Recover the amino acids of this structure.
């Protein structure tokens, strides 16, 4: 009986640990997506700035 209880507790602990790891991985992925989105927007802004400068230079 004690052995069964220990096994059930071990299974429960393992399941909890796995859930926590999965949650941490998903949080990390979300942070990475947000970071990538910021980088993409920065690149777009920089490209638009360069295009505007090129257009300005062409007009001069």
């Amino acid at each position: 009986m004690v052995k069964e209880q220990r096994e059930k507790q071990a299974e429960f602990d393992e399941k909890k640990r796995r859930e926590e790891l999965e949650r941490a991985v998903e949080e990390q992925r979300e942070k990475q997506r947000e970071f990538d989105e910021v980088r993409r927007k920065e690149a777009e802004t920089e490209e638009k700035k360069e295009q505007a400068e090129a257009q300005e230079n062409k007009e001069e």
Remarks:
- The CA atoms of residues 41 and 47 lie 10 Å apart.
- The chain has a mean pLDDT of 95.
